[in-house]
Specification:
181 residues; alpha+beta; 2 domains; two-stranded antiparallel sheet; 55% helix; 16% strand
């Protein structure tokens, strides 16, 4: 009976040591996995201009909780899709919609292209409006109907499986370090 109690006491002490080791090492595993996820998203997230990819941020909420998130609306549309909707001008009479890449800039449409458009619309020289729009590369519109977009879910389809594998790998390394393997 006395021998059994000593073995049980030894087992309890070993379990307490394991518990303290896990408490000490597990936050490191979580942090490593969060950093891995952040780097993966920053390098492999689908991009056109790179704005959505650059908008992701890593935040440590608690020692065992991290969040990789973006406030960019493009990310929400890419992940969840969007319903069809209509866009109308807010500040001007018309929407100016670029139809040629040569008239686009990072902040909108080249001012020289807009000046050319309005100059040619004032003096059409026998041309129809659609010909002028096509030539300049800008369309004026009272509204624009934006079609629905399907959700592509790159985070769920591409990154979550990679992050899960990394988490398992890091956890196994921690258990090996603690003497379980």
């Amino acid at each position: 009976m006395n021998l059994e109690l000593q073995n049980m006491e030894k087992t309890v002490n070993e379990l307490l040591d394991i518990n303290s080791g896990i408490k000490r090492e597990y936050p490191k595993v979580i942090k490593q996995t969060a950093i891995f996820a952040f780097k993966e998203i920053k390098t492999d997230y689908p991009k056109k201009s790179g704005f959505a990819r650059q908008s992701f941020q890593l935040a440590g909420l608690t020692p065992t909780s991290y969040e990789v998130a973006s406030k960019a609306p493009q990310v929400n549309v890419l992940e969840n899709g969007a319903r069809a909707h209509t866009v109308r001008p807010k500040k001007r009479k018309y929407l100016t919609i670029p139809i040629k890449d040569s008239v686009k800039t990072k902040s909108g449409i080249k001012q020289s292209a807009l000046n050319k458009l309005f100059k040619e619309l004032k003096k059409p020289k026998g041309r129809k409006k659609y010909e002028i729009f096509k030539d300049v590369g800008i369309v004026l519109s009272k509204k624009a109907n934006i079609p629905a977009r399907r959700a592509k879910k790159p985070l769920a389809k591409i990154f979550v499986p990679k992050i899960d594998k990394e988490m398992i790998k890091n956890t196994n390394e921690m258990l090996t370090k603690l003497g379980f393997r």
